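Each record in this resource describes a single protein on a pair of labelled lines. An example record follows, reproduced without changes.
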Amino acid sequence: MDSPLIFRKWAGISVLASVMERKIWTETRRGILYPNLYVILVGVPGVGKSVVVGTCEKMLRALEEIKICPHSVTAAALVDALAEAERKIVHPYYFKFNSLQVVSSELQNFFPSYETELTGMLTKFYDCEFYEHLRRTGKLHIKIEAPQLSILGGTTPAYLNGLFPEGAWSQGFTSRTIFIYADRNENHNSIFGTSEDDEYFKQLFEDHVHDLKEIMHLVGKVQWNDAAMKATDAWMRAGEKPVPEHGRLASYNTRRTTMLLKLSLIASISRNSSMEVIEEDFDTAKGWLFEAERLIPEIFKSMATTAESRIMEDAHYYMSDLYRKMNRPVPEHHLYAFLKNRTASQNIKKVIETMERSRMIKGEYSAKDAATCYTPL
């Protein structure tokens, strides 16, 4: 699949979480825990987000019992979709719940703007808590006793930068979401496939769907063996290291234990159907989580690109091109002429000073030109 390995790994983890629904759970002193996840793949356009998310959607749609949310919904429509996504299980006893899967290769379709109402709903559905909704129009009263929502989405750092206000990173939705970053695709296979490739991937897809159908039949509480419990307790007592240090992850850090417990459940089910978490599963989950967390700060670096920094990049490219053509440092009037159509006149000196101090360009006075001339670095 033409997509970064970490995207494929976490898309697979997300699919397993979706298939487990509320049929599989574990218990801790804090209460019952379900394996649903909010996973957002983040990367530049063309890196391979849509490929992997689209494939996962096809897999989930091949499982008729799984309820998939429409790609574009309002907050009210999301509640309606979840209310209609009722599941009834008779194994070994009867219970019912509402489970819905969001699969969106372009997160802006599902999340076109930041709304506190929608993010509040997403927080409740992630925590699988009772939800009640009353609408004035028609006096519609909706109660969802046992909701659950899973999300697999894809987006770019630029969209995240415009979507979330600064304060949103300390609130419920983002602290419950794992953002998976990749800036390049390591797959260097030929873009031209063969008939053998087609047959292989078709069979692989069918094998995965078959395995997912088997997991769909699993129901019940997952137990933890002594070694797994001791390893978890030891990690928590030691300070849950390594702890992400970026300031925007402070609220996320308070939920890392919950995230790791969910991932341990998924690792257990991916290993076999014993319905038991062993120490190996806990270690696997730690590997998944720590790898993802190391890369999250790269998202914030990419998000930091401002309109002014893009102007500087464009100016640097323009100056480099002129430098090659002129084969000498470029007189400053060329740079001023370029910038005057791209930023306010009072900002031009500041932009040039910043470019010099960040070593994008080097300025020197030229007696021949009777002006400062710039060399792009």
The chain is about 50% helix and 20% strand. The longest helix spans residues 279-303. The two ends are 38 Å apart (CA to CA).
